[in-house]
Amino acid sequence: MVICQVILLLLASFPLKAQDLRRMKVTDFYRLGTAELLRLRNTQPEDSVKARVLIALGQRWEDKAGSVKGDIDTATQFYKEAELIISSQQLNNLRSDIALSWGYLYYNTGQLDKARQHLRKAIDFCRKAGYKEQLGTLLLEMAKSDPEDSISLPALKEALAVYSNLQDRLKEAEVLKEFADFHFGKGEYELAEKELLQVLQMYQALHYDRIYYTYDLLSAVYQWKGDFARAQENAMAAISSAEKAGDVQILGLFYWRLAAAYQGAKNYAKYQEFLKKSLLNQLNNPYSALTYHVLGELTEQLIKDNKVNEALGYLLLTNKRQPPLEEHQKVDLAFSIADCYLALKDYTRAEQYYLKYADLIGEGDDINRDLMKISQFYIETHRHKKAEIYLQRILKNPVKHWDLKTSRNLSLLRFRIDSAAGNLLSAVKHLQQYNKLTDSAFTIEKLKQAEEMQAKFDLGAKERDNQLLRKQSSLQREIINKETLVRKVIMAGCIVLLLLLLLLYNRYRNKIKTNAMLQKQQEEIRHAYSSLEKMIGEKSKLLREKEFLIKEIHHRVKNNLQLTMSLLNTQSKYLHNEAAIRAINDSQYRLKSISMIHQKLYQGEEEGQINIKAYICEMLEYLKDSFSSGERIRFHLDVDAVLLDAAIAVPLGLILNEAITNIFKYAFPGTQHGLVEITLHVEDEMISFAVKDNGAGLPAGFDIATGGSLGFELIKVLSAQLDAVLNIDSKNGVQIYLQFQINTVYE
């Protein structure tokens, strides 16, 4: 092996022949060392070889890790020299190469107009000259680099048409993969999955060995869909195919992708294991932009496992082996150090490192994580106003960067900040959203699938162990059988002699045992009966205590709601704003509707059930007294006397409150008389509920969907909570129809 390496070094040291240089492409020159490229630049005449060398030198300086303005200026100078040679020597076959180089440079430096100008000029030339392969390359690279959909999507479509016309299946697959990446970025995961599966089939048919990038992107798609089992499967396939192809330098990315899939499945031991593999792989290979991102995640997980010293060890190792050069790497390192100080309860230094590069944070899913850390830090240190500042920065970040975990943590963060600020309605809303995301049946199902996937990978090893155990057991049984046979032969005679004595003695013992067993069984039956009576008594006592406690809870909730109504009533006496007074009165009516539910619950005999007809009657009497309508508005009730659970009665009561309140306010202005009909019927576990009036109806041009009042918005939200079909009509008054399915109705 050593001899082979020496021979390769000797061969590499010989100057390249002119005929070899002319056959080399720009990518071939890029693989040469910088010193050799500079030598060729100074020794070559003004020809196509020198132009390619200059382009490769420009790319080398542009791609420098942690490149600064001086490196970009040097790359620009090399490109200008190459462009001058190409123009003067009429080297048209190199026009696409220099255009791509200018495009990459200007895209990377944020000069989008200049990048597009160079690429479009080269694209137009290739169209006219008929350079189909170069045209496809320019279009594909423009689509990959340009952030504007209006530019990248048409470029992709034209590139696909070009390669289809050339019958280049490999390039067609590459373009289709870029379509999948585009749709993935737009959150169209189903379409991206379908396209990537098609790409896999095409690559496999072509025996393409760099298929692992497609597996990696497919793993990312499943990760965002919440299908962590398939995310693991495709990440493992990416690792396997990369190892088979010998591309070990890229394994760090795929180890990280597999770690993310295990994190989504809540397998934190595997998550930590593959984060370490990813980090060590990247530290043992050339400079990687992902290194500090992985370091941040590993540090966070080690801190959660109370391994702060180990986390600090990885921070020191990474800083020594690959010091941060880019701004985002400095941000990741600073946040990891801050996390360690926070774990050590050194809040001053933690805040110092969190804020060190906070102003450099832009947008993206990593940014959500960093800004959320700062906000959570200020919440833990009881500085909620500062936490609100960084929360607002997260909310300004595009929603496309919010995955399931980010959305769940963000809901909890907003709940904590709103609670501290006294914004209770908003806090409750965000808490409900957090619980909904946490208890998602979709997530639970995917976790089960991930566990099944892990079980499949472990099954092979277990089966091999079981086979070995079965072989050992078979050998042991054979030895035991032989020994047993010998013992049986020896003991056979003794058994025959003792058999007659045992039979005689057995009859005597059987009688004694039978009597003893009967006595014992009678004693056990008496004991069991006594224990059963005791258990029944204790259960009855517990049930009575439970019923009392539930009624006490409903009583206290009702009292608290009455107290809240009293506070609102007192507050309204000191207000002079009519809109504010009306809002407080509306809130009192809503609270009263809920309060009456709880009053019914603790006064009623049926546990957790409401007589809906009695409740509606009492609710109407209360609202008629509140609005002092007298006999001007008549009510006609056609309501079935059924018992409903509180979970249905509460939203139904609130909907009735909003409907009747709106009728009192707007349906019959002045002294106008009117009729209100309320119906509620139950048939085959389907409730039909309607409130109708013959009043003035909705204003002309009033659109409930876009211009509805708070009352109508509440009716729609509460109807959605009941999974009800809602219909609001405004012919000859206002009619509100509601129909929904329930599981149980008590007559």
Keywords:
about 750 residues, mainly alpha, five-stranded mixed sheet, two-stranded antiparallel ribbon, 30 helices, 7 strands, about 75% helix, extended, transferase
Short description:
This protein has 747 residues and is mainly alpha-helical. The chain has helices at 2-13, 18-23, 26-30, 34-43, 48-62, 69-88, 95-108, 112-129, 132-145, 149-166, 169-185, 189-206, 212-225, 228-245, 251-264, 268-283, 291-304, 308-321, 327-343, 347-354, 365-380, 384-396, 404-421, 424-438, 441-573, 578-603, 612-627, 646-667, 704-707, 710-721; strands spanning 609-611, 633-639, 643-645, 674-683, 686-693, 725-729, 735-741.
Description:
This protein has 747 residues and is mainly α. The protein is built from 30 helices and 7 strands. The strands form 2 sheets. Strands 2-4-5-7-6 form a 5-stranded mixed sheet, covered by helices on one side. Strands 1-3 form a two-stranded antiparallel ribbon. α19 packs antiparallel against α20 and α25 packs across α26. The radius of gyration is 39 Å and the shape is extended.
